[in-house]
Design goal:
single chain, about 170 residues, mainly alpha, two-stranded parallel sheet, 5 helices, about 65% helix, membrane, DUF5518 domain-containing protein
Length: about 170
């Protein structure tokens, strides 16, 4: 039983003018044999997620560490700038559109960063109570901010790549 969804609408409609870009084809033949989800899937790629996760984590860490030297910019703002810069680079370098993978990686790093900020408070008895009461909210806020930061950075990276690789028509 085949439960996969075939998104190749150009070949089913019978139009001869379909392009490889519009039909979702990788090799230009009109069919894409990749699975929907997998190591190199069409809708979700584990490989792209791993690359985005490592890149965004490294960007957040380096942004916080390097910009932590500057008193007003360091810490949380440095992490945020590092996450945006890493997502920008992933978008500028990658050939495929991988918003889902990059967004999930950013949400995970945002959650981890927000909860890691509570660890220093969580050692105290008052901090444990605070973590118990507000930990989920802080984690959800961190995930939302991480998702937004990575998607903005990734979008502008993809936009730069599109602008640099597009043919100029006169």
């Amino acid at each position: 039983m085949d439960t996969s969804i075939d998104a190749d609408l150009a070949s089913e409609s019978g139009s001869a003018g379909g392009s490889a870009r519009g039909s979702g084809s990788v090799d230009g033949s009109g069919s894409d044999d990749r699975p929907i989800v997998g190591v190199d899937g069409r809708a979700f790629s584990v490989r792209a997620f791993a690359i985005a996760f490592v890149s965004v984590a490294a960007g957040g860490f380096l942004g916080g560490a390097l910009l932590g030297i500057v008193p007003l910019v360091g810490g949380t703002l440095g992490n945020a700038l590092g996450i945006v810069a890493a997502a920008f680079l992933v978008g500028a370098v990658g050939a495929d559109r991988r918003y889902v993978e990059t967004g999930l990686a950013g949400a995970g790093i945002g959650t981890a960063s927000a909860l890691a900020g509570l660890v220093s408070v969580g050692v105290l008895p008052v901090g444990i109570q605070f973590l118990r009461e507000y930990g989920f909210g802080v984690a959800a806020f961190g995930a939302a901010v991480g998702l937004a930061l990575t998607l903005v950075g990734y979008y502008f990276g993809r936009d730069l790549r599109d602008g640099l690789t597009r043919n100029i028509d006169r």
